[in-house]
Amino acid sequence: MNEWSPSSWRQRPARQQPTYPDPDRLDRAIGELADLPPLVTSWEIERLKSQLAEAAEGRRFLLQGGACAERFDQCSAAVITNKLKVLLQMSLVLTFGLKRKIIRVGRFAGQYAKPRSSDTETRDGVSLPSYRGDLINGPDFTESDRIPDPDRLIRGYQTSSLTLNFIRSLVEGGFADLRHPEYWDLDFVEHSPRAKEYQRMVESISDSIRFMEILADSKAGEISRVDFFTSHEGLHLPYEQAVTRQVPRRKGWYNLGTHLPWLGMRTCEIDGAHVEYYRGIRNPIGVKIGPAMTPEWLTELIEVLDPDDEPGRLTLIHRFGCGKIADGLPPLIRAAKASGRRVVWCCDPMHGNTETTSEGIKTRRFDNIIGEVEQSFDVHREMGSYLGGIHFELSGDNVTECVGGARGLAEADLRRAYESRVDPRLNYEQSLEMALLIARKMASMNGRAI
Ligand code: PEP
Ligand code: CO
Predict the structure, then answer these.
(1) Ligand 1 atom closest to 69 (CA)
(2) Ligand 1 centre and the CA of 450: distance in Å?
(3) pTM of the model
(4) Which atom belonging to ligand 1 lies closest to the Cα atom of 290?
(5) Among residues 295, 162, 304, 294, which one has the least CA distance to residue 230?
(6) Model confidence pLDDT, tens digit, residues 371-386
(7) How far apart, in Å, are the Cα atoms of 335 and each of 228, 302, 312, 396?
(8) Is 319 in the pocket of ligand 1 (CB under 6 A)?
């Protein structure tokens, strides 16, 4: 294999990269980025890797979630607090349902670049570059918005830093009170046919927290500091290269722009630029795998990305769709097993379940999402592997983007509060209900009620 460097990807074909009209301005922006301090540290990254190694062995469970695409204009106290709140509350429900420590990883503080199916969009005979996320261009169908602007790379980095700064402060101080169910918005429960069961689960979680507090003679928030890690799709390679650094007293190179970068389904060709970039960084990495992935391809990817079988290195995030998971997943589990590597298996039940309504609105059905999660647990159990994580696109707010759930959101509700510019997300209530259903599924698989 050739020598790796943070720029060796430039010798390979790179998919999903924007075309900048002025390459010198791009170089200047990248040079500026490369001089800025990092967002995260190598020891945080190593801590996450060792926790993921435990998830691969069934001792922890990964909860990864956040927006499909973050927006610069939603870098606000309310949006960040609500997202953190729902992730924290979901993680608490999962802790009690799964009886395992949860690793919390946000799709935030850098999730600004999106793969698109076409380089251009045409409206009324006018063609402009497609919107590729706020890191690259703007969403309005105007030339000034859509022409890729290198200054957005700096703004993206700064906005990630503002987001992460606020997250770190919230996590350090007081935020853990949200562990208490009296802070949860549970009105939706009454609207569900499972109301009684949900209520019982919440009461039992509540009792356990009080019990823990009495034992430790302190508030649950003080018992253990909560950790949040960051992740994003490492898609824009010049940006990722600029935040790839060496640190004193450690070998190799780290992407210090996020803890857990992931490789998207559309950019994971073995000979492509993205795989070349990812193979050389020391971070734990995620790889999205879907119906197009073959066992042979996955075997090669595992060899290239984890040649040393490093614990915690690889998280395979499968996203098949409710109708395809049962047949599609087993051959890939067999391939990973045959490779001898200990990977973390994580289910993304969102990206294989996207559909368009008759009115042309992108949505996902709650029942298909939970259906894919439940089947994933079953398939892994049958195959003797362990489902060690879950990956959601969600919002902490009351958006109406996915249909179904306890309140029975219908297609007619979608226009009311549809904010995503890309994929539809679960809202606060749907996310919490999802966590309750996962906890219930795991408890029943283990022959107990919670
Ligand atoms: C995503 O996670 O938003 C995404 C584009 O996923 P995938 O690469 O799995 O389609
Ligand atoms: Co998405």
Answers:
(1) 3
(2) 33
(3) 0.96
(4) 9
(5) 162
(6) 999 999 999 999 999 9
(7) 31, 10, 18, 37
(8) yes
